[in-house]
Write a structure and sequence with these properties.
This protein is α+β, with helices and mostly antiparallel strands. Helices cover 39% and strands 15% of the residues. The strands form four sheets. It has a five-stranded antiparallel β-sheet. Strands 5-6-7-8-9 form a five-stranded mixed β-sheet, with helices on one face. Helix 17 crosses helix 19.
Length: 692
């Protein structure tokens, strides 16, 4: 409906089916199947044998029939709820391997594809959620996004890029599709009455986010395909295929330098123009509504009036309105999605899009039918009765299902929402405040685009780990002012709900003195946030309060051990860095004569010995166990020289007198551990092991 599925998709699905059958029969390994299924938007979840399928919906646009089909497929093959993502897509979770192809075939019957939902491919193209209906838009860029999607997903080179490639279209300088934070972003412009775009390139989020760079101040709308293809070819030809952690387009911009990047881009652009490809087929998207046969309802209650104020917005089309339907954590029960689809179908095909807050945005709704909408959404989502801030708050799936997750971010956001709902804060005053959580440093929860954001981290009290979050704040969105949030502090997962409450409480007092939260963060806000974090700095011992050592919703104490590389790599590296950084700091204090700690050498030896134990799947419960395990798994295993045995023995006995005599050897132990760490690859193998 909103993009054309490639003609060869059906045959590609047959090929994928053959790989799945060969894997199930033992003919091929899991890694071989993974290479095939991930570009089809099929990811293995944290629970062995369960998979997620991510469905391409350009700009979040789909028909009521397509929404119903997604929910029906989910009900038959997967999870009790469908999931709305932060990139305007839909996901079906908990699918058995043998059901992946039936799911994809049923989606194909209604014009939906999961192809490009993952892997090194052209991903879902984003569009401003109010494109076509926004009061302040320059023009509707949706037709260009739909046409570009149809063209790109039919081209073979869209599926074999160095890394994923993300595109966004914004309908105004407010940049509500985050064009400046994608690999390629188009912002609608008019020049002498002609449609065109300001173009940004090499932005992105992830663990090393960057704001995009201005590539064109203006290109005619007819050049959208040429510009996109030139960037895609540049990326394909020069992108880093060897190191996936440095393979995104922004890394190529940095490695080439701006001048060389632009030079290579112009070469590719000229080549595309010489080839003179067919123009994109642009079809304007109707923004109208058919009136259903059922009658409008009437509601004159305070609750209805408050809901309208919070969630209903006028459109530029007379007598039509848009309605934000908040879906907490993006999870909409299948039966509720079907009810919503059935309700919307009489209004036509152009009435629903996914928004970036994991929500749905209804559009082209005749104002007279708002009471009908209100009564339905009240039954579907409790958030419809609450402040818009809570409806817009975001969390990625976190460690619940994602193999990269560190913390249970969904549980943390749920606890935070409960704390805010039960407070006396007037959140209606800050309805557009962006509160975002990610379960790890990857930015799936868009924490780097938040007013106040958090990403999963690991804390340690003595030898006990606890879940924590790094605090970021002060992002700006909008052409000419775009910037990422900046890291400010850290807070334990247990304290996060109260921490958020305290920050918002203070912001409500001070907000009238600042033009935005970002401006506040630039001024006294950073100091204020750190002062609030200081109140939660002390973590009780495990024996005093065990709740700090359990993540929100977890049944077991927090741990990274036993989860494997995919699940815990980011947190693992964080944990190693914390120990090594602390050991280096203590060493410098000793060398400068500033240390007053008589046990500093013991602490350096302890942190050096403990740093890499997690790579062996070990969490030692005591200091003595740290040294015993280090001796066994590193010295006796030949990874660290036997010369350091006296240091380990003295530190284990806390013999400060002996360690004073071995001070330089203690420092050398730290250096040896750091060197070993630097030799570690992404599979947690050290260079010594790799050569063995």
């Amino acid at each position: 409906m909103f993009y054309k599925v490639p003609e060869n998709l059906a045959s590609e699905l047959e090929e994928l089916d053959s790989y799945i059958e060969r894997y199930r029969s033992g003919e091929i390994e899991a890694a071989t199947l993974k290479v095939r299924r991930v570009p089809f938007g099929c990811y293995e979840q944290r629970t062995d044998g369960t998979y997620m399928v991510r469905i391409r919906t350009t700009g979040g646009a789909l028909t009521p029939r397509q929404l119903r089909t997604i929910a029906e497929v989910s009900a038959h093959y997967g999870n009790p709820a469908i999931h709305v993502t932060t990139r305007q897509e839909f996901q079906i979770h908990d699918i058995a391997l043998e059901n992946i192809l039936p799911v994809m075939r049923e989606l194909l019957q209604v014009g939906l594809a999961a192809r490009g939902g993952g892997g090194n491919t052209v991903r879902n193209v984003l569009v401003s959620p109010d494109a076509g209906v926004g009061l302040d838009e320059v023009f509707d860029p949706s037709p260009y996004a739909f046409a570009l999607t149809s063209r790109l997903i039919a081209e073979p080179d869209s599926w074999m890029l160095p890394r994923k490639f993300k595109i966004a279209f914004s309908n105004s300088t407010a940049d509500t599709s985050y064009a400046e934070f994608n690999d390629l972003g188009f912002v609608a412009q008019l020049r002498d009455g002609a449609k065109g775009f300001r173009v940004f390139a090499a932005g992105g989020l992830g663990t090393k986010p960057e704001v995009g760079h201005l590539l064109h101040d203006f290109i005619p709308a007819a050049d959208v395909y040429a510009g996109t293809t030139a960037i895609e070819r540049l990326f394909d030809k020069h992108g880093n295929r060897k190191n996936r952690h440095a393979a995104r387009l922004r890394f190529l911009w940095n490695s080439l330098g701006e001048a060389r990047f632009r030079e290579l881009y112009e070469e590719q652009l000229q080549q595309v123009r010489v080839e003179n490809p067919p123009a994109l087929v642009i079809e304007e998207v109707p923004q109208s509504s058919t009136f259903p046969s059922f009658a409008p309802e009437v509601d004159q209650t305070h609750e209805f009036a408050q809901w309208k104020e919070r969630y209903v917005e006028p459109q530029k089309q007379t007598e039509l309105v848009s309605v934000l339907v908040p879906i907490f954590l993006g999870n909409l029960k299948n039966e509720d999605a079907i009810r919503l689809a059935d309700f919307l179908e009489p209004f036509g095909n152009y009435v629903v899009r996914a928004a970036f807050g994991q929500n749905l945005r209804l559009r082209n709704i005749p104002e007279a039918y708002l009471p009908n909408v209100f009564h339905l959404v009240q039954e579907i989502t409790e958030l419809a009765s609450g402040p818009r801030l809570l409806g817009n708050s975001i969390s990625c799936t976190g460690a619940d299902t994602c193999k990269l997750g560190i913390c249970l971010s969904k549980g943390a956001l749920a606890a935070t929402a409960d704390r805010l709902k039960n407070s006396d804060l007037d959140l209606n005053q800050i309805s557009e405040f962006r509160l975002n959580l990610s379960g790890c440093p990857n930015t799936c929860g868009q924490h780097m685009l938040a007013d106040l954001g958090f990403f999963g981290n690991v804390g340690r009290k003595e030898q006990q780990m606890f879940p924590a979050y790094m605090v970021v704040a002060g992002a700006e969105i909008g052409e000419g002012k775009a910037r990422l949030a900046r890291q400010i502090d850290r807070v334990s997962a247990r304290d996060l709900p109260q921490f958020v409450h305290e920050v918002l409480k203070l912001w409500l007092v001070k907000k009238d003195s600042f033009s935005s939260f970002a401006v506040y963060v630039d001024g006294e806000g950073t100091q204020d946030i750190r002062a609030i974090a200081d109140r939660f700095r002390a973590i009780p011992e495990f024996s005093v309060d065990q709740t700090y050592y359990y993540d929100w919703g977890a049944k077991d104490t927090f741990s990274l051990v036993g989860k494997g590389l995919g699940e815990c790599s980011a947190g693992l590296f964080d944990l190693i860095e914390v120990d090594l950084k602390s050991a280096r700091h203590l060493r410098e204090e000793l060398r400068s004569g500033d240390s007053q700690d008589e046990d500093a050498l013991v602490a350096i030896a302890l942190r050096s010995a403990r740093a890499l134990l997690i790579t062996r799947g070990i969490e030692a419960p005591t200091d003595s166990a740290v040294f015993e395990n280090f001796r066994k798994h590193f010295i006796q295993a030949g990874l660290i020289g036997a010369r350091f045995e006296p240091v380990i023995a003295a530190a284990q006995q806390k013999n400060t007198e002996a360690l004073n005599q071995l001070e330089e050897e203690v420092f050398a132990l730290l250096e040896a551990v750091e060197a070993l760490y630097r030799s570690m690859d992404n599979s947690l193998r050290f260079a010594v092991e790799a050569r063995a």
